[in-house]
Amino acid sequence: MNENDLDAASRPFSSPARSGLSAAPRPPRLHLLALNPTDSVTEGFLPAAARLGLAVTLLTDQPEAHERAYGRREEDGAAQHPCPALDFPALDFPALDIVPCDVRDFAEVISRIAADGARPRAVFTNSDHLQVQAALAAQYFGLPGKDWRAALRTKNKAELRRALAAAGPDVADPVWSAELATGQDPATLAGLDAPYPCVLKPREGVASEDVVLVADADELVRRCAEIRERRPGAALVVEEFLDGELRTLETLGDGRTLHVLGAFRTELSPPPHFIEERLHLLPAPPPQPHTDQVLAQLRALGVGFGVCHTEYVVQGDRARLIEVNYRAIGDQCDLVLAELLGIPLFEYILRTHMGEPLPDDLGARTDGRVRMEYVMADRAGRLDSAPPASVTERDGVRLDYRPLRGIGEEHPLHRTNRDFLGVLRATGTDQGRIDAAVARFLAAHRWEIV
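Structure (tokenized):
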């Protein structure tokens, strides 16, 4: 996301006043764990916290980045996020303390929260990397939260495969996989009886970074060595290549009820890399029998609290899991989903972590359709020209284009979502009109890299 200058510095925790005078009651406080700023937090969870009347302590190992991202100016008495470069609507933020913390260390997270001197109302994160830490902190303070074991199973792709295998073939079709442990020599993989071509990926990776299709044993060892140069000693996983239509299932639960929010069909770049180029929201209700199969596999993993984004491949009447991301779907899909469903999605997610049950019926609309189109860089270089942010409506289709890279910025080619130059959010109720509107937009604009 684009960042703005911030005049305010981060503020440390302070203990409640201890005087004879009664202090004004403090608003309930959400402790939110984050690494880098994301659109999900900036446009989703922070405004939702404000609407719920929560104060927020944001624990992060990148405080300066968050200070820039939440540039604030007083306007009509409310803290606003102007973001003029992207033409964002003004966002209401809660009372916000940004606190430096080694958020990857759960013991440090617990210590920082305890130093506040008041029991937190909720501990939450939307980061792939911090689910276990947030779950352990919530458990320490006796708060509702995810089972840390389920958070670990979903983050660790080798453990996910082991857990699904233990659940048995009635729950999940077996998927061949092997693990290269931290520091283990890649040459040990040469003798694997792998079903080539197969997929190599970091065991705890995200966003398709360093995920690659390998053709044979020689390429497997070579690719492992290349990844280890970028990620020294990293644990890796080799998996059976699951060919077929890629879909997602978006769920929200409170530990009692598990709601299906929606499902997307995902189109990827050509092999050997796996970059998401576009997503289409599938018509409600999500397709069967695949949805029930995915839900059964989530139950086997212990997933059912809070929001979850699951990716799977359709092979005939079987749903075979690719990965489970125990957080909201990203790259602005969650923002669009909330808008399209017509429900306070981000508030619902936070409420579950405050111990509030979800309604039996979320009251979501079912007639909406969306296409997320990601404009990607095809080479390294400097972005020389690109269209500005824009919002248009025509023939029942709303097009919302957001630049993700500024003119003049120079970047290498990552072969991940970090290559996105912009995202086009097309929404409506008629898929044909949506697709036609996207085609017109792409034909009318140019993105040039020099």
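DSSP finds eleven helices and 22 strands in the chain. The longest strand covers residues 258-268.
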